[in-house]
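Note to self: the last two entries modelled the partners one at a time, which told us nothing about the interface. This time every component goes in together.
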Amino acid sequence: MADALPKFNRPWLYPKQLDAIFCEERYGLCEASTKSGKTVGCIIWIVEKAWNGSEGQNFWWVAPVFPQAEIAYRRMKLFLPSWVYKPNDSKMFLRLANGAMIWFKSAEKPDSLYGEDVYAAVIDEATRVREQSWWAIRSTVTATQAPVRIIGNIKGRKNWAYRLARKAESGEPDHHYAKINAYDAVDAGILPLAEVEDAKRQLPDHIFRELYLAEPGDDEGNPFGIQAIRECTVEAMSDDKPVGWGWDLAKSQDWTVGIALDRDGAVSRFHRFQSDWEFTFQTVLHKTKKLLAIVDSTGVGDPIVERLRRDGGRNFRGFKFTPASKQQLMERLAVAIQNQEISFPDGVITSELESFEYEYRNGSVRYSAPPGLHDDCVVALALAVMAKSNARVFSGNLQFENLKRASYWKRY
Ligand SMILES: Nc1ncnc2c1ncn2[C@@H]1O[C@H](COP(=O)(O)OP(=O)(O)OP(=O)(O)O)[C@@H](O)[C@H]1O
Ligand SMILES: [Mg+2]
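The predicted structure of the combined assembly is written out below.
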């Protein structure tokens, strides 16, 4: 039957895209700028492989999470003429007219990736895929000795894709390495220069470098700067009087953390616990006393903050997290750390700060802990920085600034 089908006509790819993805080697690693055509190039590649494959053979497209695999699935359906394939939307695969099947999978559960024989695989956004999933995918191409394309943005140095790219770059046999930056994509005519320049103006330098120039920063995707964190680290907590508190309330599996800063910006109180709401409420109320406290009022935090304001006083202020408000809060914390306006004791606060990451999605930067790690201390510290900058000490009496400026608070 395959003989009766037309030959696959490879669409135009720009030279660097072609070299990166249609290389001879079995493993093709491509570190590239956002919007440089990684996904499009690999869609073309895997369709070509599958079209030249045969009945019953499996081809895999693997993305870090399900919605990303779904995007590629939808794009491929748009890209191919409809007579070429039959889609199975619930299982997310396309059966091509030659009987080959292209599956779209999420890398979230490595165990679900074992067991199949795969004839070509793409790992999209590989720097966000867990290493165990890579091992699983690797096992599926063993019997078939099939080719794999591993593509993505740079995301620090602490991931398997970065390490494998370094091996490929240093000439590991059967590995091909390519790097495409945003200016290559501009030269190729698929990305407007103005867009890149706009991103350069808007994004912090190290983020722009990773996302658009495909160059890792020294801070492994850390928005505060590892060196800056170390410069703010002290051996012991201050025992001076606090001037303002930040409280991050535990949601399902995380911790409630309260951090207070003294007049010099040193952490002088620190509480971290997991307990029921009543205990949490009482602790926040009694530790904070009459000082300004900014309390996470997102979701279930909202009624707690209301009760704190009723029973404790108007020194309790709610802060609602949205991607935008979190970004602002974290950028303020980054400035405080980079200018050494604050200091904190070595331990859980520093380790959370060091593992904290940023992520670039849908055109904006999101700040969070890596999967499986916590960021409650980082959040509490950021809220404490905000509280401190809104509270001033005058001869032992506390005076609130800005509290009357309702518009300021309404932003959050
Ligand atoms: N060979 C090509 N011919 C024409 N347009 C292309 C080609 N390759 C990429 N493009 C254009 O560039 C856009 C971005 O491509 P693509 O989504 O593959 O980039 P990416 O590197 O995967 O980006 P992201 O960082 O969002 O994952 C596509 O929507 C398409 O418009
Ligand atoms: Mg992509």
